[in-house]
Amino acid sequence: PESVGWMTDAWRTHGSPLDILSALGFAECKDEQLTVLQQSWLTADTAAMSLSEATEILGRLGKATSLEGQLEVLKVTDNERRVVAALDNAVAPLFMQRPQYRLVQKTFKGDLTATPTHIAAFLDGLEEGCFMSAAQATELLAGLRLETSRRFECCHVVCARVIDKWRLTEADHTEVACYYGWDGPYASQLVRSTPLEDAIKLQNTVLSHMGRADHTEYARSRRLPGFAARIIAQNIAAGSSGTRSDTCAICLEQCEDGSPLWACGLCANRLHARCCRSWVLQRGGEMTAECPYCRGPAAQGKFTIGELPAKSPEAAREDAPMEGEEEAALVPPAAKRSKSD
Q1: Which residues contact 223 (CB under 8 A, 6 or more apart)?
Q2: Cα torsion at 141, 152, 170, 84 (round to 10°)?
Q3: SS3 for 319?
Q4: Is residue 220 within 8 Å of 214, Cβ to Cβ?
Q5: Which domains does the chain have, with CATH numbers?
Q6: 210-231 in b/e burial notation, b at 16+ Cβ within 10 A?
Q7: CA gyration radius for the chain?
Q8: Average pLDDT score over residue span 98-110
Q9: Residue 14 · residue 39 · CB < 8 Å
Q10: What's the per-residue H, E or C state across 223-272?
């Protein structure tokens, strides 16, 4: 029926969603039902459905109290799988390159003296190349020969740098996956209205979400947000034809005129004031932070109110700073005090 025609190419084995439900009903055992579900998504644009995923879907179908509810389960499942497939494609270029990954493996494989801080510092040395896939993280962690307590801390360091978090599973990464893993519903909510064919926007969305996390304690790094912001800035600059971007590289929202902004003194690109302050603190302070667009010293930028339509001379005089009034510091005094405390 047209009302359930939202899945066409993917239902290759059993036809329409109604046919899927019919095949499940005629299956003689649970194993056959799981096979029906796994074979229903045999497409080139999505990964093969795992047994655990099929088991979860079968459980959701069993809890549905009506035909409409079961069809909705299949529809939501299809959407989540399409989102995950699009995200897989978007972040794949960010995976750690093979030579660098082999170097990391060689450095720490079988090293009984490796510490989480040592591993974090080594990965940070790769800068924007520090992000890895869940599969790479699994292989790397498998090669570590550490005592249980230290291994758990190293899992945090490694998994915090995994860019395809929807691939993190407890089976491969122990309970650390509970901290960093994204399920299908969460990934769908994260993407929201972003077109699935726009790989760069999807990539920026994932990086922005990762960059806003607090990596100081578990990932042992203040630099991860900066690496994410740099890649976003490069993506934005590549799509802006050399003009100044009005997209904040931290949160991906527009830098609207009339709102508090920070402007780089070298490239004139802008960030939201609140995003800039948070980012600078994560980077260790205003003396070490860099503009994510041009890597110029962030201390040379300044806080402003976004450009507004021209004001009358009277209004301009009213808004002018009082004599002796100082320009706002990059990091407010209160923030500096709290950091030193």
Answers
A1: 124, 127, 283
A2: -70
A3: helix
A4: no
A5: 2-91 (no CATH), 95-181 (no CATH), 244-319+326-340 (3.30.40)
A6: bbbbebeebbbbbbbbbbbbbb
A7: 24
A8: 90
A9: yes
A10: CHHHHHHHHHHHHHHHCCCCCCCCECCCCCCECCCCCEEEECCCCCCEEE
Phi and psi torsions of 272, nearest 5°: -65, 140
pTM metric for this prediction: 0.68
Q: Are 253 and 247 in contact (CB under 8 A)?
A: yes
Rounded Cα distance between 180 and 169, Å, is 9
Band of pLDDT at residue 336, cut at 50, 70 and 90:
very low
Residue-level length of the chain: 341
Q: Is 297 helix (H, G, I), strand (E, B) or coil?
A: strand
The CA distance from 308 to 287, in Å, is: 30
pLDDT band at 10 (very low <50, low <70, confident <90, very high): very low
Q: Looking at residues 203-228, what average pLDDT do you find?
A: 82
Angle made by CA atoms 100, 91, 160, in degrees to the nearest 5 = 65
pLDDT tens-digit profile of 84-98? 999 999 999 999 999
The answer on pLDDT for 237 being more than 50 is: yes
Token representation of residue 12: 């290759």
Task: Quick: pLDDT tens for 77-86.
Answer: 988 988 999 9
Single-letter code of the amino acid located at 78:
D
**Are the CB atoms for 83 and 188 separated by under 8 Å?**
yes
3-class SS of residue 302: strand
